[in-house]
Amino acid sequence: MDSFRIAGGVPLHGEVRISGAKNSALPALAACLLTDESVILHRIPSVRDIATMQSLLEYTGAAISTCSDNALRVDASRLDRPEAPYDVVKTMRASSLVLGPLVARTGRARVSMPGGCAIGARPINLHVAALEQLGATIEQSHGYVEAIAPHGLQGGHVHFDRITVTGTEDVLMAAVLAKGETVIRNAAREPEVKDLADLLVKMGAKIEGAGTSIIRIQGVERLHGARHAIIPDRIETGTFALAAAMTHGELTIADCFPEHIAALVFKMEQAGADIEQLDSHTLRVRCARRPKSIDMATEEYPGFATDLQAQYMAWMSTAQGISFITETIFENRFMHVLELARLGANIRTEGRQAIVAGENELTGAQVIASDLRASASLVLAALVARGETIIDRVYHMDRGYERIEEKLAGVGAKIERIQ
Ligand code: EPZ
Fold first, then answer.
1. 166 C-alpha vs ligand 1 centroid, how far in Å?
2. What is the C-alpha to C-alpha distance for residues 287 and 272, in angstroms, rounded to an integer?
3. In the prediction, which pLDDT does 54 show?
4. Does the CB atom of residue 296 touch ligand 1 within 6 A?
5. pLDDT tens-digit series, residues 300-309
6. Strand, helix or coil at 290?
7. Ligand 1: does its nearest atom lie under 6 Å from the Cβ of 329?
8. Rounded CA separation 403/373 (Å)
9. What is the rounded distance in angstroms from the CA atom of residue 157 to the CA atom of residue 85?
């Protein structure tokens, strides 16, 4: 298992380019199952979760080829095994994204229930209930969800009890081939949902309201091929913005969508960071002083992203006072707290709240990554900790950050991967 060795204390300077969003590329790849024509997706990040989704699509019968350095061509003309087996799903819960497309395109789907993960139970009950509203008959047994709709899906009314990103994406992909109109209420408004809808419309779907909490879909007979570029990764963007501020450097962040991290930018400016939008795709971030302690609570988009909570906590660990950080989306997303404490952070958790007492200095240590975004928070803390930090199990980071050590080293970080 690979580790990172990081020597802290180096301010980052220079330009980083943001890759395509993992959480947009995953549903986009699943959407390719909805047509028998080829779909070409650009700006696909080369991260482990994408490789997992690729092998899952190939398992169902789709053919995938690389058609340029970061573009994939997916040909799902032959889907002879509409299944997502346990040994694939256990490594990536987002595999449940194939449930909707498979049952919509082939009339059946057999998807392993994604196990829990470090940050929570991660059930898919809302996905199942939504697909039943569209007429699918769903059985759950032996750890699998089996959905059938031999006469096709019918449009219907879906009202999510709570906002679910991949739940919205799953039912959106099913509804585009259902007969009649589907209305999804309390839909997720994340940019990745809007990006998926943009792709589906290019494929011939009829969708209104994507990106708002009410989405209307008129089902169509079939979808055709398309070409689409994935939006930039807003979590990578936020991670680099925090890296610039924490290390008291100055980073130009290119190929990003500043609007997608507006909630983070607002908090960072309150804490004393200097963030300037140079053009519609470029931010410049710097922060000369220790940040002020600013409270934060995660919320569904356009609120503060839960996927940036751990990274923000790392920054607040160096702040001038006490901040309260509340995680409202997942029940167990403080796995990074104990590891940050090994680096000298002073954090106490009470249920969904973490109380962070900022310290003047963090110190290097050996730590272990527990999940994707927790590993990012440890890297950020290691970049400012005095001395050397070793982070084990960085395969977590490889799931969602493309060439992270190369990008960080490219702006001055003293980071190397050790096998
Ligand atoms: C997506 O996960 C993202 N993953 C997550 O990013 C992100 O943290 C999350 O949305 C929230 O923004 C992808 O897009 C691939 P949810 P998702 O369904 O869709 C509960 C990362 O680091 N829930 O919006 O699985 C659930 O347990 C990952 O890139 C149900 O109870 O999250 C959670 O508490 C981590 N039943 C809440 O809803 C369901 O059927 C929100 O989850 C579905 C969800």
1. 7
2. 7
3. 96
4. no
5. 999 999 999 9
6. coil
7. yes
8. 15
9. 30
